[in-house]
Design a protein that fits this description.
The protein is of the alpha/beta class. The protein has nine helices and nine strands. Strands 2, 3, 4, 5, 6, 7 and 8 form a seven-stranded parallel sheet that branches. The protein has a two-stranded parallel sheet with strand order 1-9.
């Protein structure tokens, strides 16, 4: 059945409208990040990584037309499908990764922000080898309160995991990632992990980045010196129903 000209125009109108929404979200988010960086006397502006989980590949294609080449996803199967559909976009994994899915993640992820165990690090290292790619940038996810059930390695385990990753030939440690637990003060969490990242960087003789801060705690993360902020709703709007 052939689509009518009316259906085609309707689809085009929807695409144009959605593109305008995304452009507005990007502009306002960037302006906010730049203003906060200025307010806190920073000489740099944190990198913006749009979080596109639950949103269709069509939205990400529109973001690409707006100049966005890097996005973040939380769920492996969903991200894999989008990566296959949009090979020119870099997809970053920020959600927990099951060891059994590490081989898949190593094939599509431009980086993984949620490495929290030796077992996962080894699985990703093997996955990179199987995929025939050169290396995979990774971040260690930190569990500030030590409750690793929600993902992350406890503060006192970060250095040991960093050493393990450093010895794996196919992984490249880029820094630390943290999400503040609900019952904590975000500013304190971000400051502590920023300090830990800097200390680790001194040991490794190269800068370690901090991936921290989402829509609700953007101000606190930028004040603490995050290098990467992960924003979803502020750019994408509410997640689609269904």
């Amino acid at each position: 059945m052939t689509a009518s000209s009316g259906d085609i125009r309707s689809a085009e109108d929807h695409s144009n409208s959605r593109s305008e929404e995304l452009a507005a979200g990007l502009t306002s988010t960037r302006e906010l990040i730049e203003q906060l960086a200025k307010d806190f006397g920073r000489q740099d502006v944190p990198e913006l990584l749009p979080v596109t989980k639950f949103h269709p590949a069509a939205d990400i294609a529109l973001l690409a037309e707006l100049g966005i080449k890097d996005v973040a996803e939380n769920r492996e199967q969903e991200a894999r499908g989008k990566a296959e559909e949009l090979p020119d976009v870099h997809f970053h994994m920020i959600g927990q990764v099951q060891t059994k899915k590490a081989n898949h993640v190593a094939r599509w992820a431009h980086s993984v922000h949620s490495v929290d165990t030796e077992k996962l690090a080894n699985a990703l290292n093997r996955g990179v080898d199987n995929a025939g790619r050169e290396s995979l940038p990774v971040f260690i996810q930190v569990s500030y309160d030590g409750d690793t059930a929600r993902g992350g390695v406890a503060l006192d385990g970060v250095e040991e995991l960093a050493k393990i990753i450093e010895d794996l030939p196919n992984l490249e440690l880029r820094g630390l990632m943290v999400v503040p637990p609900l019952d904590t003060v975000a500013k304190e969490v971000f400051s502590a992990v920023r300090e830990l990242a800097d200390s680790l960087g001194e040991q490794l003789k190269r800068p370690m980045k901090l991936s921290a801060g989402m829509s609700a705690d953007l101000k606190e993360a930028i004040a603490a010196g995050t290098d990467i902020v992960r924003v979803g709703t502020g750019i994408m709007g509410a997640r689609p129903l269904g």
